[in-house]
Design brief:
The protein is mainly α. The chain has one domain (2-202): Four Helix Bundle (Hemerythrin (Met), subunit A) (Up-down Bundle), CATH 1.20.120. The protein contains seven helices and five strands. The strands form two sheets. Strands 1-2-3 form a three-stranded mixed beta sheet. The chain has a two-stranded antiparallel sheet with strand order 4-5. Helix 3 runs parallel beside helix 7 (159-182), helix 5 (80-98) runs parallel beside helix 6 and helix 5 (80-98) packs antiparallel against helix 7 (159-182).
Length: 203
């Protein structure tokens, strides 16, 4: 009995130690930030939506192994890592919008490993959410989605972020959760139990 208790304690310690490595502790969205805004505005609601994206992405990608990243359900589908690449691209569109930057076709970004992609995705979500949280309704007129290429540019209002990149990111985060279950590494299978309803972690 003592051996079993000791083994359980050891496994718990390993899990806690892993979840508190600098690689994880330095990343935003292990939990949704404390506190609610006192008022409902376009900015605070949009920011909370992005907080939800960040929280779900953090836990959907937490603890992924090489075999999870290379998994794909069929030959024509994206792998899990390619799906994460797509999510990062969507988040860049959101972040560029609130920073009033265009999305320029053909832009080359630095090559990143999985952890680098995860970190950049979470940090871009956090930056965008913080800008939105203090934005007024009139600010949203400047948060257009702008796509530029050699033939010119096209613009869309922030409304399209809601049913476009933000909704699409949530869709693909769900795919990551599904893929990792299929590759034998289910979402939140450790001691920490994230609640997508509260945005907090139950131990």
């Amino acid at each position: 009995m003592k051996k079993i208790t000791l083994l359980i304690a050891l496994l718990s310690l390993i899990q806690v130690t892993y979840s508190q490595t600098p690689e994880n502790m330095d990343l935003p969205y292990r939990e949704i930030p404390d506190g609610y805004s006192e008022t409902y505005t376009a900015g605070t609601v949009s920011a909370r939506m992005l907080d939800g994206v960040g929280f779900r992405f953090y836990w959907a990608t937490n603890g992924l192994r090489p075999e999870d990243l290379s998994f794909k359900p069929n030959d024509e589908a994206r792998t899990t890592e390619q799906t994460i690449d797509h999510i990062l691209g969507l988040v860049r569109v959101v972040n560029n919008s609130v920073n009033q930057r265009p999305n320029i076709n053909g832009t080359e970004y630095p090559s990143l490993d999985f952890q680098g992609k995860r970190k950049e995705t979470l940090e871009l979500i956090k930056e965008a959410a913080e800008i939105l949280r203090t934005s007024t309704s009139s600010d949203f007129e400047s948060y257009k989605i702008v796509f530029k290429n050699d033939n010119g540019q096209s613009e869309f209002p922030f409304w399209n972020q809601l049913n476009g990149p933000i909704a699409d990111a949530l869709w693909h985060i769900g795919q990551v959760v599904s893929f990792r279950r299929s590759s034998g590494n289910p979402f939140a299978s450790g001691i920490d139990k994230p609640s997508v309803f509260t945005g907090k972690v139950r131990n």
